[in-house]
Amino acid sequence: MQTVLINLLYSVVSIIALYTIRHYIFTLNRLFSRPRQPYVDIGTADWPTVTIFVPAHNEELVIGDMMENLLKVDYPHDRLIIVPINDRSKDRTKDILDKYAKEFPVLIKPYHRVSGKCGKSSALKEVEPLYKSEIHLVFDADYLPGKGLIKQLVAPFFDPEVGAVMGRVVPYNIKPSLLTRILDLERSGGYQVDQQARMNLHMVPQFGGTVGGVRTSALKSIGGWRSDTLAEDTDVTMRMTLEGWKVAYQNRSECYEEVPENWFARIRQITRWAKGHNQSCARYFFPLLRQLGKLPTLAVLDGLMLLGVFLMPPLLLVGWTLSLTLFYMGNQIGNLFMLILVISTYNTLGNFATFFEVASATRLDGSGKRILLLPFLSLGFLVSFVTVSWATISQILSSPFNNHRKWDKTDRHRNGDVGGNDSSSDCDYENGHYSNRGHGYAYLIAGGCTIVEHIFGRSGV
What we know:
This protein is α/β, with parallel strands linked by helices. Helix content is 49%, strand content 11%. It has 16 helices and eight strands. Strands 3-2-1-4-7-6-8-5 form an eight-stranded mixed sheet, with helices on both faces. Strand 1 (50-56), helix 2 (63-71) and strand 2 form a beta-alpha-beta unit. Helix 6 crosses helix 13. The termini are far apart. The relative contact order is 0.16.
C-alpha cells in the first residue's frame, strides 16, 4: 500500500512541476524573443464577408454601447452584417436592438430566440447556419471593440491554415475595487504572456469565445457549434486542433470588457469556466493524446496541458492528502514530499512562476506601477483555488459531461446598474447612451484620446 501511495505522490509532484516549468518557459519566451505577429500589419486587402454575432440575454445596460462601437468599425459595410442574438431577454434588450435595426436595416439584423436550449453555445448553433459569410466573429454584449479591430481579427484568415482567431481581452473597469485591479493583472499575464508565448512557439493559442472568430468552412468541417457544452470556446479550440486547423492570436488587437466587481460574481464566473473546461478535458484529452506523431508534438503537448489546467487545484489537494497519509503511516517520504508540494504550490499558484509571469506582463505593457499590486494576487489565487477545487470535485462526483440549460452571465455595473442582472433597472435607454448615436460609452469616456491611452496609457505593442 505504501508503495502505491508513494508512486501516486511522485506522479502528482511531477505533473505540478511540469506546469511550473511551463509558466517559466512562457515568461522567458516573452521577455527575450520578438512577438510573432504575422498578420497584424495587413491594412489593405480584398476583405472577405463577415458576420458579427453578439449573443445577449438581459443586456439592456450594455448592448447599446456595443452597437455604437460596431457602427464605427473600419470595415466595408457592404461586406459586414451585425447579428445581435437576443435569447429570451426579459428586460429591454429586444426594444433596444429593434430600434437600431430600424435605423440601420441593412447593417444590423437582430435575431430574437423564443425557444430551444438556453445559453450562448445553443444560440450560436441555432443562428450561425443562417448566415453564409466567409468569417464569423463573436463578441460578448459587454465588450467595446475599437475602430480597427474587425480588420485585425479578419486579417489572419488570409492564411488558409488558420481556422480560428483570438484577440486580446483588456478590462476597462479597473478602478471600482481591489478585485477589478487583480483581474486586470491576471488578464495581462494570461494574454500578454501565455497567449502570445503560445503563438510564438507554434503551440495552441486558445480561442476565447469572444473577441475572435472562426472561418465558416473550418467550423463546418468540425461539425459546427455544440449546444451540449458549457465552454464553447475550449470546445472549438480542441476540435479545430484535432482537425489540423491553426488558432492565431493577435496580441495588439485589444477589446475592452467589464470584469466582475464583486467576489460573488467572480466565484460564479470561475465555477462556470472550470466546469466547462473540465467537460472539454473529459471529451478531448485522449483523442488529442492519440494525435502524437500525427500533429506537431508541441501543439499536442500544449493542448493536453491546456485541457488539464483546471485540474491542478484538486490535484494539489490529492498530493497533500497522500503526503499526510504517508506521514501518519510512519513513512518519512511523506514529510519530504509535503515540503515539495508546498514549494510547488507556491511556484505554481503564486509568488514565483505566476507572479513572474504577471510582473513581466506589466513590464511588456509599459505600465510598471501596477506591479505594486502583485502581493494581492495571493487573495485572488486563494479564491480561485477553493472555487475550482469545489467545482471540479462536485462535477466529477456528478458527471463530467453534465451541461446546464440556462444563461449564467456576469453581473453588469456599467451605466448605473446596482442590481446585477435585475431587469427592472432604471437605466433609461431613450435618454441615455442608447439613443445618442455616435456617443457610445467607449467614446464618451475617452475624451478625445484613444481608449487604450485613456485607460492604460499603453501603446498596445
